[in-house]
Amino acid sequence: MTHAACWNPGAETIDAHTLARHTLNQLRQQVDYVLARSPFYQQKLGAAGRTTADLKQLEAFSEFPFTEKAELRESQLATPPFGAHLACDPQDVRRVYSTSGTTGRPTYIGLTTRDIASWREAAVRSFWCAGLRPEHRVPVVVSPFVVAASYADAFETIGTCIPVGVNMTDRLIDAFRFAKANAMLCTSSYPLHFAQALASRDIDPRSLGLKVIFGGGEPGASIPWVRQQIEDTFGCRLMEVSGNGDYCAMAWAECEHRIGMHFMAQGIIHPELIDPDTGAPVKIEDGARGELVCTSLQRESQPLLRFRTRDHVEVTHTRCHCGRTGFGIRIIGRTDDMLIVRGVNVYPSAVRDVIASFAPATNGVMEIQLHKAPPEGWEPPVHIKVEHDPQAADAAGLKAAIEARLREKLIFRADIELVPPLALPRYEYKAQLVKKCWLA
Question: Most buried one in 20, 42, 355, 375, CB count within 10 A?
Fold first, then answer.
């Protein structure tokens, strides 16, 4: 195997015209498939009056109905365990897992052998793009399991996989010290938590020999101050990657130029941008913002047509010196996590970006506390707990400075409560940036 720039050059450098033609053909096949096999889509497309015959050009797909996460949950409640959107024989399902359930009841995802191969291909392209190479040994510490299994498939295809498990800090440390692990996949907020765990054991993070960290699962790895702090702490490179347990475990990754995550799942997923309020298509061009909508192109088990991910993204580029033609994005936040403070849209991840910019006085760990249900609970000032270093800055001055910058950058009024390091919870999966205190 050579260290080529792309794992799959034919897919990763495909020109826009050829990709559109292939995508249209695949969409027609996928729509034919669900109309023949999926009771869920038979009903949904029938109610919308849409058939394969409507797909005379790619743009016509924007007239097809969206698939909502809530619909999938309701489908599985009515037809357990996989729901009426299952489109294959249940005996052909080879992996089953549940999504995290952070926004409601977990949904169960099944994959056939072909589905597993498709997810593996997208993950291999993504991790290769982000710098994974044969000499890397990667501990698997993320959950849920089948997503981790898809990552493990990619690690084994390119390099070496070391299964560790979640909440196994000492085993993870041993993987670096004794098994010579030299790469890590984790959430964007986990490395600094891991560094604190190392410090409590008198272990220098740089002594682990980490070469690259792949950060995903939540926005943050591309924040300059967060990235710099992690890279300085471990003496390694931090690369942002992203995927989704519903449509594809790994489909986006930064290349060496680090100007945004390339779309890496050509031929496997069809991505769109929409206006989250109106549902209207948003043209994919530099600087465009919208909600990411994804469609599976060759899924057998539970195909998804126009699945609303609720990820709000910005297009960072449509051309790159690496030669890949997949457009780039950065994730701004989730539209269903958004707060509306006096008519202003506030994404928790954007709040964390501002707070992280005060490093080293802050470490980027924060928690927005809502003491009443919205909309009343969104009334300013919004209460935010922020971890800070008492030795790095005057507390009163830091509090005032953070509040002023939040008002300047995000146009809302906050009440900052500074707390000592380690006062707020740590998460090995997705960091919970908003605490609904009225439910606690």
Answer: 355
Strand, coil or helix: 361: coil
Domains and CATH numbers, the chain: 1-334 (3.40.50.12780), 339-439 (3.30.300.30)
Q: Is the distance from CB of 213 to CB of 237 less than 8 angstroms? A: yes
Please give the Cα distance from 132 to 153 (Å, whole number).
13
* pLDDT confidence of residue 437: 86
Q: What is the pLDDT of residue 102?
A: 47
Q: Which residue has tokens 């309020």?
A: 277
Residue with the two structure tokens 């496997």: 268
Residue type for 395, please?
A
Do the Cβ atoms of 308 and 293 come closer than 8 Å? yes
Give the model's pLDDT for residue 2.
37
The pairing of beta strand 183-187 with beta strand 212-216: parallel
> Contact 224/240 with Cβ under 8 angstroms?
no
Nearest to 184 by CA among 245, 131, 117, 129: 131
**What pLDDT is recorded for position 429?**
57
Q: What is the pLDDT of residue 251?
A: 96
pLDDT, position 82 = 94
* Per-residue model confidence (pLDDT) at position 346: 87
Residue 415: phi, psi to the nearest 5? -115, 105
How far is it, in rounded angstroms, from Cα 202 to Cα 179? 20
Q: Where does 91-132 have alpha helices with state H?
A: 113-129
Q: Within 13 A of 58's CA, how many CA atoms are on the CB side?
A: 17
Q: Identify the residue whose tokens are 């357990």.
A: 80
Strand-strand pairing, 269-274 and 261-263: unpaired
Q: Distance between CA atoms of 185 and 424, rounded to whole angstroms? A: 23
Which residue has tokens 């740089």? Answer: 206
The pTM score is 0.85
Three-state secondary structure call for residue 248: strand
Q: Please, is 169 exposed, middle or buried when counting C-beta atoms within 10 Å of its C-beta (0-12, 13-18, 19+)? A: middle
Residue 345's CB is within 10 A of a number of other CB atoms, namely 18
pLDDT attached to residue 279 = 96
Look at the alpha carbons of 198, 204, 205, 210 in this order and tell me if their dihedral is positive or negative.
negative
Low-confidence ranges of the chain (pLDDT < 50): 1-3, 102-103
Helix axes 190-200, 224-234, angle to 10 degrees: 30
- pLDDT given for residue 1 in this prediction: 33
